[in-house]
């Protein structure tokens, strides 16, 4: 049952990522942010294609709340995978959505 739920969750996440990739503007794909094992929670639990899709998805966000919702969903999936393998994931504190929050704030004179 747990395995079925994990497979279903992964399929939903990957399907969402594939759909999002179709609408990502080229400028978002060219962003300098790069996902890697030092800044991506669950990196070691993702396939190469999942890593590529995750990075593209993260680069596509323009709204802080949407980004935070995706980040929460991604972390839940990675936590589930980690539990199944007896691993502990690092805490990435603010994570990759910080740039959207920073960019949304008005400049101080």
UniProtKB/TrEMBL annotation:
Entry keywords, A to Z: Signal
Keyword Signal: yes
Signal peptide (residue range): 1-20
Keyword Signal: yes
Designated name of the protein: Secreted protein
